[in-house]
Amino acid sequence: MMVNEKRQKEMKALGVLLQNDKEHYAVRFLSKAGNFTVEELNNVNKIAEKYGRGYSGLTTRLQIEVPWIKDEDIEKAMEEAKALGLRHGGTGQKIRPIVACKGTVCLHGNIDTQAICRELECKYFGTDTPHKCKIGIVGCANNCAKANINDIGVMGRIIPEFNLDKCVGCGLCVKGCRQKALQIVDKKVIYNKDLCVNCGECVRLCKTNAAIAKEKGAEIFVGGRFGRGIRIGDSLGKIFKEEEIVPIVDKVIEHYREVGNKGERISTVMDRVGKDKFIADVLSKYE
């Protein structure tokens, strides 16, 4: 029997999504910064075996969905999942599940992406915003989680500084620089700032402290989106220290809630008020 539209909307608000046959649901279980414990995975399996068809799938925002749950079973499945400690949700005009790369343990990570993600999730996940709002956090310029096509994007950065008195011309930094921003001339490193993407690899590779971190933290992007409308987020224009990341995101969300009209994503607000004004107003709140 097909599910009526009213029930469909009620279920969607809970992260329970009607499938295209209009008879079955997929329940979206929530991770913590993209991670599930072994116990949680086992419990997802129990729900999938008992109420679905014995499998689950990953979403693009690092959650797990169990499909093929019958309408008559959905309340029982949700009650059992709750008793097992599983959370479900992730839709609506709210802060959506926050995505972070593995920059915390990755060789290239410049910030603790997982800790930042967990802190922001505890503060904001599922809270109301004028329209859906997606936050993405990456540890470096590799941008594996595509931070700048989220409404709010956080990208770990290291701006290098070079002390030629300590440079021995070994070339380790040159070999590690994918952007070809470094070269050795007369046994000293030459730095082309225009080619640099502030990934920090040269700082990590240097054994003599000739390359050091002048600034370390994150660049913050606002107004990105992807899908039916594509927009690359605009930078707030500076590097924020790691301890400043959550406070500046606080101000972005605060300002978005103040000036955004219902149905406007951050990109739409910026188009309406002007991106320079939006950014200046956010920074004035922070400073």
How much of the sequence lies in strands comes to 15-25%
Q: Largest beta sheet, briefly?
A: 5 strands, mixed
Count of β-strands: 11
The percent range for helix content is 25-40%
The 3D shape can be described as globular
Count up the domains.
2
The average pLDDT value, as a whole number, equals 95
Quick structural overview:
By secondary structure, the protein is α+β, with helices and mostly antiparallel strands. It is 31% helix and 22% strand. A hairpin with a 5-residue loop joins β3 and β4.
Task: Give a verbal description of the structure.
With 287 residues, this protein is of the alpha+beta class. It folds into two domains: 5-83, Alpha-Beta Plaits (2-Layer Sandwich), CATH 3.30.70; 99-158 and 217-286, Sulfite Reductase Hemoprotein, domain 1 (2-Layer Sandwich). The chain contains nine helices and eleven strands. The longest helix is centred in the last third of the chain and has 15 residues, at 245-259. It comes from Clostridium vincentii. Keywords: 4Fe-4S, Heme, Iron, Iron-sulfur, Metal-binding, Oxidoreductase. This is Anaerobic sulfite reductase subunit C.
